[in-house]
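Issue: copy button drops trailing tokens. Both records pasted manually instead:
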Amino acid sequence: MAGKRPQTEGRLRARPGTEAIGSAPVGLRPLGIGGTRDNYLYAPPTYHPENPAPLVLLLHGAGGHAHHGLALLKDLADAFGLILLAPASREPTWDILVGQYGPDVTIIDRALEWAFSRYVFDLRSVAIGGFSDGASYALSLGITNGDLFTHVIAFSPGFGAPAAQRGYPRIFISHGIYDEVLPIERCSRRIIPRLRRSDYEVRYREFEGGHKITPETALEAVEWFTAKRD
């Protein structure tokens, strides 16, 4: 809609460059970018600007914190050379789940700007991911900003509410068949056909279990994300 602010449309302005301007420390680091709660970045000890790294922006579930976002893939970051960026929602869950796009888009944009100014990323491997409410938000923002994100990783999403469709990020979705929090029949089994009808390339995994991420599923998602393609 003409005249609307980019934040209300779910649009992210930050874009990666080809050179790092600021220092690029490894390990866990708070960002200090404002907001009501802390936001974090983790860079593996093997990071070097001469070897652009894959980036995964990770979104926590309802009631969670940035640390919970990091924990989704932290055990795999060193082995796969991933830089993980984990913002925290302003409220107990992400803005679109309680109203409309707004303050959380702003803080995510600031987090991305902070990372893009300090690290060099592989432009073919820029992902957004999350669990539960974070997965729903990742699907929504990832499709809305498909000109930035190359991949979307959604563990047990409830829905997708993109403000627009831009680009065609590849999408990974997993869901437990015994999930009682976000039942699979009214969530992922409805989401997948809609995505495929819209011509998205989707890898979908159902597993024996409830509302969780299994180690096997997390590993498959990272292997899928980091796989080299012609």
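Record 2 (pasted manually too):
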Amino acid sequence: MKIVANSSVLIALSSIGKLNLLRDKYKNIIIPKAVWSEVVETSWGEPGSDEVRKANWIEVLEIKDNNLFMAINESLDYGEAEAIVLAIELKADMILLDEKDARIIADRFNIVPLGTIGILIWAKKANKIESLKKELDKLKNEGNFRISPKVYHRALKAVDER
């Protein structure tokens, strides 16, 4: 299974000490150079920087289709655009990203998007975490992750938590 990730999921899960959930679920993931640069090189000391740098189960690849990148990059940031292009080039099974606009573009290219909350829902159902509510609250309060009340309650309902 080929899984490509954008920086948002890596940073969010790292901010609550749960980056390992990606390894548990997928064994390995692939990120483009722009995501590596954003998370590891330009955000030294921030959540995800050290965790991603040390994760030998994360592979970094370069994109090849710069024309497609330029077209997608008009409406997304570098990391999101490279992640989508890399997912297309690799015929990835899934792309990990949170941003709504990026998810819409991934859908247009028939790439299945999954975000941080989806990973946490899986983790709760797989008994990898004790409480989704606890992790969502940490994500909001410690990770400064924006989540609407509607999405928050829908996620809790998906795992029968209140």
